[in-house]
Amino acid sequence: MAEIRDIEVVVFDVLGTLVDEPGGLRAAVRDAVSASDDASVDVLVTLWQQHVELQQQRIGQGQRAYVNTQIIDGEAAQRVADHAGLTDPATIARLATAGQRLHAWGDSVAGLERLAQRFPVLGLSNASRTALLRLNAHAGLRWHQALSSEAVLAYKPAPEVYQFAIDTAGCPPERVLMVAAHAWDLRGAQARGMRTAYVRRPVGDPPTSSDVFDWRFDGLDELVTALMAR
Question: Which residue ranges in the chain fall short of pLDDT 70?
């Protein structure tokens, strides 16, 4: 088990971990398709999420050439529009940028600010460079550096994405802490030798009984307190 005092750089997943991705998508779909009830909105959000997940998997498996999230989100928005009978081009175009207007969880902004007083703090996201830039501004996330997987033309959990973060951190992987609300993300980081911390969120991918991560926290405040007290 790693010692928390050995950590030099902290890397955060963004979507789901620091911002409420499903909630933001749900709000955007509701705005675009104003007559939909809750059940209909949930169906459309699921349609969106399934498309994004499938396309990123296809790219990871070499079945599709890399395209960034702005392309994939545009496709997802069109699928939602087709399903809902939405035809207004401006409304569909705005829906396609829903991932750039997500709200931070209540502890995210202050937590990052506290950590940044002691550690280099990086974001590591599958969001494209432009989408990540606009999302950070909208949600109020402040980083020492925000890294998009677009730089290596891959999506997490591809190993080259985590290696990109390690190379940017400039220290051994065992001194780099990956923080996420998704067990699949932490498994990818763990495979590259990074330390791992699961932070529980209302959304995400909880660890299974077979996952052995270095730390688990009920919220970002717990993680920040542990790191700052080392």
Answer: 1-2, 35
Report how far residue 37's alpha carbon sits from residue 26's, in angstroms, rounded to the nearest whole number: 11
* Predicted local distance difference test score (pLDDT) of residue 67: 98
What mean pLDDT is reported for the chain? Answer: 96
**Coil, helix or strand for 43?**
helix
SS3 content of the chain, % helix, strand, coil (to 5): 50, 15, 35
Distance CA 218, CA 160 (A): 29
In order of 70, 125, 147, the CA distances from 161 in angstroms are 18, 9, 9
Structure letter (DSSP) for residue 8: -
Block residue for tokens 């401006």: 90
Task: Report the phi/psi class of residue 11: left, alpha or beta, with left for phi > 0 and alpha for psi in -120 to 50.
Answer: beta
Q: What angle do CA 113, 150, 122 make, to 5 degrees?
A: 20
pLDDT tens string 91-126? 999 999 999 999 999 999 999 999 999 999 999 999
Asked if residues 186 and 180 have their Cβ atoms less than 8 Å apart, the reply is yes
Residue 10 pairs in a beta bridge with 121, 177
Q: 29 and 44 in contact (C-beta within 8 Å)?
A: yes
The whole-angstrom separation of Cα 146 and Cα 132 is: 8
Token pair belonging to 146: 């925000």
pTM: predicted TM-score of the whole model, two decimal places: 0.95
